[in-house]
Q: What sequence folds into this?
């Protein structure tokens, strides 16, 4: 159904107009149902329905499956121009992707973790039945994740950038999407530098070492060694030193030396 968003938007109820504006902040016009409901209702199902239904009736938002919503390109472009609650929507979008990726990571890999997101009750009580379901649930949003990282970096939301980059570990390793993950980790390095967080910077170098090692290309062992070295140097220079990162970097370098 073709719709003129400039005609349809002014007649929307307040909550629906607010959601419409918030969806325009998202870097694509494709959304998981849970994200739309969170943005539309702040965790209140009745309020979410009251915000979503007018958008669907007006043809501004389309249900494309049991768990997906879609905005036509012209509608999404218009939504991006609508003034509204940009900062709140940006936080809601970032938080949703962070919690979801962290929940998947907890299920699919056994590894030391740094970010606070992994200790959130909502992440621990994720609701996934097992690793394969968690991975499959994330697949539809795979293309959105790097764009969300880029958006958050451009908006100066640096803390979210490096938290997301760490939370990507499990999904991107299991799906063998190393190039995308490494690109996001380099963005996270610049975010940590801009934020002035030495701990985050050290951790991102540690994640880059892990990503290169797992990719196992011709130049990846050398890249892993560089990033382990940078992680250790950065963590050791902190006051006090971030000892878990120092220890992990030294163990990584020792393992590389032992297997060279």
A:
């Amino acid at each position: 159904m073709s719709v003129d968003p400039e005609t349809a938007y002014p007649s929307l109820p307040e909550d629906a107009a607010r959601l419409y504006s918030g969806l325009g902040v998202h870097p694509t016009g494709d959304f998981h149902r849970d994200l739309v409901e969170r943005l539309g209702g702040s965790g209140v199902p009745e309020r979410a329905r009251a915000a979503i239904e007018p958008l669907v009736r007006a043809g501004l938002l389309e249900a494309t499956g049991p768990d997906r919503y879609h905005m036509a390109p012209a509608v999404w472009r218009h939504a991006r121009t609508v003034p509204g609650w940009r900062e709140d929507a940006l936080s809601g979008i970032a938080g949703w992707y962070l919690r979801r990726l962290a929940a998947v990571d907890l299920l699919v890999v056994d590894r030391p973790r740094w970010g606070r997101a992994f200790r959130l009750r909502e992440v621990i009580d994720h609701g996934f039945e097992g690793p394969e379901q968690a991975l499959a649930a994330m697949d539809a949003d795979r293309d959105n994740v790097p764009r969300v990282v880029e958006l958050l970096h451009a908006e100066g939301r640096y803390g979210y950038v490096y938290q997301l980059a760490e939370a990507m570990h499990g999904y991107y390793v299991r799906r063998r999407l190393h190039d995308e993950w490494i690109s996001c980790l380099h963005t996270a390095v610049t975010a940590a530098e801009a934020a002035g967080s030495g701990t985050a910077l050290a951790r991102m170098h540690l994640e880059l070492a892990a990503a290169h090692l797992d990719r196992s290309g011709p130049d990846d062992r050398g890249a892993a060694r560089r990033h382990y070295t940078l992680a250790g140097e950065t963590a050791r220079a902190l006051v006090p030193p971030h000892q878990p990162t120092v220890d992990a970097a030294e163990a990584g370098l020792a393992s590389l030396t032992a297997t060279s």
